[in-house]
Design a protein that fits this description.
By secondary structure, this protein is α+β, with helices and mostly antiparallel strands. The chain has a single domain, classed as START domain (Alpha-D-Glucose-1,6-Bisphosphate, Chain A, domain 4, 2-Layer Sandwich), CATH 3.30.530.20. Helix content is about 30%, strand content about 45%. Strands 1-7-6-5-4-3-2 form a seven-stranded antiparallel β-sheet. The radius of gyration is 16 Å and the shape is globular. The N and C termini lie far apart (about 40 Å).
């Protein structure tokens, strides 16, 4: 793990739909809020807009480890079976507001004519603002990371099969 990496978590699940019918960016940037909420009990709200440079942006609101997060995911790679999004996410904690950098990568690969493997890979890193936030509270980064990792990993593990099922529904409805 890098010096200021908080978590690097990747899980996979099966999508029972033909590879050709899957379009991850289309799914992500048209995902209705009720469908986003269906993918995790920690999901609160979702929407989509554009960043100042015109790139598509997915806005996700969720709670992880008791902290409210507002993620501003901007597409950095958008291919039919591979989407990479980056966010400087706002975190609202009992001791104040700060930010972390999150890289969210979603991909699908063909298994056979009827099934694919979906991978949900999430990496987060401390921003300079976040490091200062911990310093002001006297919390060593390693202590924070050790406490945050299990919650973030469990969240990713829980939402991955539900995202796969949602992508599957979208693919079969197209």
């Amino acid at each position: 793990m890098g010096d200021h990496e908080i978590v690097d978590s990747s899980f996979s699940a099966i999508i029972n739909a033909p590879f050709e019918k899957i379009d991850i960016p289309q799914w992500c940037f048209t995902l209705p809020e009720h469908e986003y909420r269906r993918c995790s009990p920690a999901h609160i709200a979702a929407g989509f807009t554009t960043a100042p440079d015109g790139k598509r942006m997915s806005i996700n609101v969720e709670t992880i480890g008791g902290s409210l997060m507002v993620q501003h995911y901007v597409e950095t790679l958008a291919e039919k079976h591979h989407l990479i999004l980056e966010s400087v996410s706002d975190i609202f904690t009992p001791t104040g507001r700060t930010t972390i950098h999150v890289l969210w990568e979603l991909s699908a690969k063909r298994i056979d004519d009827r099934t694919c493997e979906f991978t949900n890979h999430v990496r987060s890193r401390a921003t300079e603002e976040f490091k200062a936030f911990l310093d002001r509270q006297g919390i060593p980064f390693e202590v924070f990371r050790a406490q945050r990792q299990p919650m973030s990993i469990a969240h990713n593990q829980g939402e991955t099969p539900l995202f796969a099922a949602s992508i599957e529904r979208a693919a079969l409805n197209n």
